[in-house]
Amino acid sequence: MTEIKISKIIRSKRRSIGLQICRDASLIVRAPFRVSETDINRIVERKRSWIMKHQGIAQKQVRAGKPKEFVNGEEFLYLGDSYRLVVVENQASPLLFDKAFFLSQEYLNRAGSIFLDWYKAQARSKITERVNLYLTQTDLKYNRLGITKARKRWGSCGRNNNLNFSWRLIMAPLRIIDYVVAHEVAHLEHKNHSRRFWNKVSALFPDYKQSRKWLRENDHLLTIGDSSVFGKDL
User: Which end of the chain has the lower number of beta carbons within 10 A, N or C?
Assistant: First the structure.
């Protein structure tokens, strides 16, 4: 059996033990002063499956989270599918999409912002469409819809019924977008995560648990160059 290596133990006045998987997949343990290394190792072994799972995800993040280089053949996600990039000459538009991404060589120095603008425009169009579709199942209304640069928060619904969604969602499969949309539409009625809220989500999108699980396990793929850290308090 593979040994789980602890990169660092950080002791403090905290009351519980915390496990942290870093971006490089290393394991940091945060522990109270009174807990012995023997007890720490025992707990680490008990949480082996959680540690191995999230180290694997972190390793994928390292590969998927490298900043894009915007070179020929590089892959970009859109609605859950991967499309290659083709750098072309003499193209009037900075970026075109037709079963592949065609980027004008003239705009290579601004490729990142051009892709971001394109993704945000597609996200606004598609998410607005899906929000309006799910609203037909209710008598609810929203105030306005915004597209944000949020990295961790896929969507939100404010007290004034403003809906916000991360542009990164446009890289996910449509069923994942629909789950987040249904989640926020349900918040138009229930501004909490009560049982009634989840019943509303289920009524709008019955398969929400599978989509929620997919998003938690694959969010690292929906990026053009960032990553995250996993933590667990015991």
Answer: N
Per the structure block, which two tokens stand in for 68? 């894009």
Is residue 112 within 8 Å of residue 68, measured between CB atoms? yes
3-class secondary structure per residue, 137-157: CCCCCCCCEEEECCCCCCEEE
DSSP letter, residue 216: H
DSSP category for residue 92: S
pLDDT, tens digit, 9 for 90 and up, residues 33-61: 999 999 999 999 999 998 888 888 777 76
Average pLDDT of the chain?
89
For residue 144, count CB atoms less than 10 angstroms from its CB and return exposed for 0-12, middle for 13-18, buried for 19 or more: exposed
Q: Rounded to an integer, what distance in angstroms lies between the CA atom of residue 177 and that of residue 129?
A: 11
Q: How far is CA 194 from the centre of its chain?
A: 23
Cβ-contact 178, 158 below 8 angstroms: no
Which residues sit opposite 20 in a β-bridge? 28, 231
Is 230's pLDDT higher than 50?
A: no
- Strand stretches in 143-208, DSSP E: 145-148, 155-157, 163-166
Measure the CA–CA gap between 29 and 25, rounded to whole angstroms: 13
Report which of 121, 181, 133 is spatially closest to residue 157, judged by C-alpha positions.
181
Per the listing, tokens 């592949």 go with 100
